[in-house]
Amino acid sequence: MLVVFLVLSAGVWQYANRTADLSYDRLLTGSALAIIERIRSRNGQVEVDLPYAALDILSLAPDDKVYYAVSGPDKSYLTGYKDFPPPEHYTPSASPVFYNTNYLNEPIRAVVVSKRLDDPGVSGWVEVRIGQSRNARNALSNEILLGEMAVLVLVITLALTSLAFGINRTLSPLNQLSRSLRERRADEMGPLPDTDIKEVKPLIASIDQYRTRLQSNLDMMQVFIADASHQIRTALSSVQAQLDMAEMEHDQDKLQNRLALIRNQHRKLTRLTNQLLTHALVAHRRDTNQFQQVKLDALLSAILTSEVRDHADSNIEFNYSNTHRDLTIDADPVSLRECLRNLIDNAIKYGPENNSITLGIDVEAEQVKIFVDDQGPGIPDEMLQRAVLRFERIETGKNTLGSGLGLGIANTVTEAHGGQLHLINRQPQGLRVELVLPRRRI
Amino acid sequence: MRILLIEDNTELANAISEYFGHIGHPLDWCESAESAEKLLAYQSFDMLILDINLPGKSGFQLLKQLRAQSEEIPVLILTARAEVDDRVSALDIGADDYMVKPFDFRELAARCRALLRRERGNASNQIVCGNLTYDASTASVTLHEIQIDLRHREIQLLELLLNNLDHVLTKEQIADRLYRFDEAYTPNAIEQVLTRLRKKLAGSSLHIKTIRGLGYLAHVDD
């Protein structure tokens, strides 16, 4: 607003000056032309018959001083103020030329006009300079300026007031909204109070939606913590029980048995802790968006290599199936690695001793399927859906370590990548866990 | 036989010390990479058990520094699972083995023994992997201290695998080392050499895994 005001003020100032100059310049021209008309040559002499009426015109500005000078051919002095200055770089011409100068320590507005005499004996340019001090001119200019500025200030004030009023009015529903958000308790659910203003409705709807999502996240978290506490407490109390029994045991062989049981429980607890921490890790990474370009071949072969290394003494056969060695996808490599490692661990734990495990990919136009195949017992068809949920361990009758968190981790990671987790029973036996991921982030 | 344990958790370190004392391998213990540096400067050890997560300089930094000084001492890394990249990068920067906490003490002791034996072997051109010994100077292999007859290519393959323990070798990498460029070989040839080698080494501590679609990986299980 200040800039607009300054630009407009500069414009008004310019306009006032120009208008004042224009009016008083006309008077100056009139006088100059009247004088030059009366310059004649007679008998080889230049004569000036100064028309006092011409100077009278200028007395319309009573406070101003008028100076004039008339010179003949070859700049010879004829009449008036001899040292009244001509403009710089002046070429004689019949049309008047205006200029600003200083005379007797006063700023002067002046005009010069010339006429050519072509009589025998007298030939050349005669010149009339006439100037006037600027008092009346400045007074007029100031008068115009003041008037215009008053209008300008009025307009700007009006604009500012209506703008402030408009903004206040538009924002009032937002103020109301922030007040009601501030006053709400953290556990208070239900939608926010409705509004009549059409423009604000989508905002309120989005906030409500966001709160619903947040709440469902919190609910899931609560269930998760309850499940986790239950599992950890169960494992801990059974270790405690075995320790108590071991303390009372005097028979060496039985003591060894107890210790083996404790070791087994402890292994279970270790795996559970690792999986819980991994789950927390992938959930955190999902919320913080750690996506980057990932070379799938490098990631998958590194995962498989470390799994083979850890199970080199087993009879398990490991396979890798990837014909797209240069494929890159948008993914979070850390959570993808944790997820696949857990799936392979699952396959090893739930599968037979001579298991054959394949890590591989199928590439399609928009998506890539990363799969882990095994030769294990698979999952009963009616339980496929539930198996993806956390802690839904499938009872296959085999006593294995496992918390069922493996598939839960895979589910969280797939969701974070905007993909889907599929469990497929293979023929004649075995399970395929398949992560269907978009190749590029949407 | 001197082992230096670098571990800042006092309880774990005491437990490891006690266990190793029990089985007749007393070990020295210090709490940080900095004090380990001082100890290594004037004493010689046969092996390091190195925790990654240390106060001050990390185990990784110490290991990198040692390898940069071409210090060949065997190093076994201890790492927590939460440090997801540890397992891969530990081997990449020159650790000889790693264990993820929490671990089984019996397993730790077995791995240490394996590393120490392998190291002793290296000095005398011998590579010892549990019950299997390979002598590079005479190109001879013994299993349970009984000499085993291997063909030329089988020996080449065995040496290649022993020099790349725990790393995947692709079929192409193996072919490059086993065959001259003007020698024709079928893709099956390597598989056949490997099958014969596996048969002859049956019952050894060296496991050679085929990862179909990726390559081969040798691992010593003591």
TrEMBL record, chain A:
Protein EC: 2.7.13.3
Stretches assigned to the Histidine kinase domain: 227-441
The keyword Membrane belongs to this UniProt entry's keyword annotation: yes
SMART domains reported in the protein's UniProt record: HATPase_c, HisKA
Enzymatic reactions: ATP + protein L-histidine = ADP + protein N-phospho-L-histidine
Highest rank taxon of the organism: Bacteria
GO molecular function, one term: kinase activity
UniProt KW keywords: Coiled coil, Kinase, Membrane, Phosphoprotein, Transferase, Transmembrane, Transmembrane helix
Localization per Swiss-Prot or TrEMBL: Membrane
Coiled coil: 238-272
Regions crossing the membrane: 144-167
Xref: CDD domains: HATPase (cd00075), HisKA (cd00082)
The protein's name: histidine kinase
Organism: Marinobacterium zhoushanense
Gene: tctE
From TrEMBL, chain B:
Keyword set includes Transcription regulation: yes
Segment forming the signal sequence: none
Domain of life: Bacteria
Keyword rRNA-binding included in the entry's annotation: no
Pfam families in UniProt: Response_reg (PF00072), Trans_reg_C (PF00486)
InterPro entries assigned to the protein according to its UniProt record, in alphabetical order: CheY-like_superfamily, OmpR/PhoB-type_DNA-bd, Sig_transdc_resp-reg_receiver, WalR-like, WH-like_DNA-bd_sf
PTM-bearing positions, type 4-aspartylphosphate: 51
Annotated ranges, domain OmpR/PhoB-type: 124-220
DNA-binding region per Swiss-Prot/TrEMBL record: 124-220
Record keywords: DNA-binding, Phosphoprotein, Transcription, Transcription regulation
Residue ranges of domain Response regulatory in the record: 2-116
Gene Ontology MF terms: DNA binding
Protein name from the UniProt record: DNA-binding response regulator
